[in-house]
């Protein structure tokens, strides 16, 4: 199946300096690190990048900076949408003008629109931007799922290429793959679900843990694609402890930021309302990175 953004799309954290400003030099280092470890695409200013705490000016600067840094070596996807359709259209157009390859369009959160309003919201964005759109279905965070019938209708739009599926429901994934056109790309939105979702037709992952173990994740997906299920399952099992340590101990992106610091990438502390990882979380992540021989 087609993977328009490659198999391993990293949802980038936003590095911050000691004064809380965006640290562009560290972002450049982070992009190079991820490219060297299997990333085929990047989401910039998604929720892993702490988009609610970033100004529009910071977001647009990051799109420009990452597009220039990547220089065509991977796809760049802008997390430029919110629960406000008009603002989502405006910022997404600005992102497109700065050279991003696609838009990640999240379900409007808090307001929890009905399905006909979701259809209108996503269609308005896709009609306006002139570049591909990847839907983002994450009902646990937004309070509203993109229901199957809505996805099927959206999949018929020529500018909507797929969905980042973080519904944490394999039945939903299976039915989405079965009901949507073959070229509608389903990406796992949760690292721990990637291999099971590949088994029912997903094409890759929009990953957080790829910051730390991107090579392993790429190898797992490649083994699955090559018809080596036992090898893919063995890699999946090896990564389970790291998935849990990074994603379950504290809310994302607290854990992955701690992991990057352990790898020597000084991404800094998150912005409030998040705080740095608790020492027990750091120790747990350090133990998993050591077990996987990822620490220098």
Query: What distance separates the N and C termini?
Result: 36 Å
The main β sheet shows up as: 8 strands, parallel, barrel
Helical/strand content category: alpha/beta
In the sheet with the most strands, the strands line up as 1-2-3-4-5-6-7-8
- Total number of strands: 8
Q: What's the assembly state of these chains?
A: single chain
Helix tally equals 12
* Series of secondary-structure elements, N-terminal to C-terminal: EHEHEHEHEHHEHEHEHHHH
The helix fraction, in percent, is 40-55%
The percentage of residues in β strands lies in: 5-15%
Rg calc: 18 Å
Give the mean pLDDT.
97
Uncertain segments are none
| Overall 3D shape | globular
Provide key terms for this protein.
296 residues; alpha/beta; 12 helices; 48% helix
Task: Tell me about this structure.
- With 296 residues, the chain is an alpha/beta fold.
- Helix content is 48%, strand content 12%.
- It contains twelve helices and eight strands.
- It has helices at residues 24-36, 56-70, 85-97, 115-129, 139-142, 148-155, 170-179, 194-199, 210-225, 229-247, 254-262, 279-291; strands at 8-11, 41-44, 75-78, 102-106, 133-137, 160-165, 185-188, 204-207.
- An eight-stranded parallel beta barrel has the order 1-2-3-4-5-6-7-8, surrounded by six helices.
- Helix 1 (24-36) packs parallel to helix 9 (210-225), helix 3 packs parallel to helix 4 (115-129) and helix 9 (210-225) packs antiparallel against helix 10 (229-247).
- The chain starts with 7 loop residues before the first strand and ends in a 5-residue tail after the last helix.
């Amino acid at each position: 199946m087609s993977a328009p953004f490659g198999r391993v799309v990293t949802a980038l954290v936003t590095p911050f300096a000691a004064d809380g400003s965006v640290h562009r030099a560290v972002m450049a280092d982070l992009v190079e690190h991820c490219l060297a470890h299997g990333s085929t695409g990047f989401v910039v200013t998604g929720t892993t990048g702490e988009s609610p705490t970033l100004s529009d000016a910071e977001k647009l600067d990051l799109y420009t900076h990452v597009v220039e840094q990547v220089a065509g070596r991977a796809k760049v996807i802008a997390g430029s949408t919110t629960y406000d359709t008009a603002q989502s259209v405006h910022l997404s157009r600005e992102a497109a003008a700065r050279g991003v390859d696609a838009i990640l369009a999240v379900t409007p959160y808090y307001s929890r629109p009905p399905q006909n309003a979701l259809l209108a919201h996503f269609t308005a964005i896709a009609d306006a931007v002139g570049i591909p759109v990847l839907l983002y279905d994450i009902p646990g965070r937004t309070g509203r799922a993109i229901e199957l019938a809505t996805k099927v209708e959206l999949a018929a739009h020529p500018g909507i290429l797929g969905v980042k599926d973080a519904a944490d429901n394999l039945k939903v994934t299976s039915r989405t793959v079965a009901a949507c056109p073959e070229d509608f790309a389903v990406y796992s939105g949760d690292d721990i679900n990637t291999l099971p979702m590949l088994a029912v037709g997903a094409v890759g992952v929009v990953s957080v843990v790829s910051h730390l173990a991107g090579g392993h994740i790429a190898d797992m997906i490649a083994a699955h694609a090559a018809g080596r299920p036992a090898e893919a399952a063995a890699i999946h099992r090896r990564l389970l402890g790291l998935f849990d340590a990074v994603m379950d101990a504290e809310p994302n992106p607290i854990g992955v930021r701690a992991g990057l610091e352990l790898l020597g990438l000084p991404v800094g502390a998150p912005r409030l309302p998040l705080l740095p990882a608790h020492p027990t979380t750091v120790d747990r992540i350090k133990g998993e990175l050591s077990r996987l021989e990822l620490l220098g």
